[in-house]
Amino acid sequence: MIGQPVLATGRLLLRPFTLADAAEVQRLAGDYAIASSTLSIPYPYPDGAAEAWIATHRPGFEKGMHVVYAVTRPDDGTLVGAAGLVEIDRRHGRAELGYWVGRPYQGRGYATEAARAVIEYGFSVLELHRVYALHLSRNPASGRVMEKCGMVYEAHLREHGRKWGIFEDLDVRGILHDEWRERCTAPAIRECRVG
Fold it and tell me: What's the angle, vertex CA 116, arms to CA 130 and CA 7, rounded to 5?
């Protein structure tokens, strides 16, 4: 099987995570502000959780279940966050987009740039028909990233998820392959290479 490709954008390099990234994942994702803005990131971030999460990436990619990227700056290799497609469903041609960017790197457009690259990969390489994403309704910044990627608002799901024992409302946005081609005239990925 071909390995997970590396994606290069104008300012970022998206590469597979390695176990060497675990401490930085724990530090960045374990920030209360980051953990509280998503459904899936724990707080406090337990020791060993980053290693366990990273260990799922390769087998999940090989089984076609997900593709998860370390979002890094190519000049110095700094890890700024993560982006990927999960819940890949080949039968229905869809996948869920997910991402986070560490607080020191927010406000620079990294989340949008990484999300656009992952969406492009989903449509161009995985030949998906639809990419969708969910965000906590109380986190409109995540919704703005999705909007900048051309995703359209589709639904408000009342108390659809639970974070730390509290039911949370979620908003859903999505984009179809043909819409992506119409709205995104410039390629999101400058280079896609294996290894």
Answer: 110
Judge contact between 177 and 129, C-beta under 8 A.
Answer: yes
Reduced to 3 states (helix: H, G, I; strand: E, B; else coil), residue 31 is coil
Contact between 100 and 84 under an 8 Å Cβ cutoff? The reply is no
- The string of DSSP letters for 118-185 reads HHHHHHHTS--SEEEEEEETT-HHHHHHHHHTT-EEEEEEEEEEEETTEEEEEEEEEEEHHHHHHH--
- The pTM assigned to this predicted structure is 0.94
84-138 pLDDT, tens per residue?
999 999 999 999 999 999 999 999 999 999 999 999 999 999 999 999 999 999 9
> Does residue 170 contact residue 139 with C-beta atoms inside 8 Å?
no
Which class is 5-194 in CATH?
A: alpha beta
Q: How far apart are CA 173 and CA 188, in angstroms?
A: 19
Residue 25 near residue 16, CB atoms below 8 Å:
no
Q: Report d(CA 118, CA 100) in Å as an integer.
A: 13
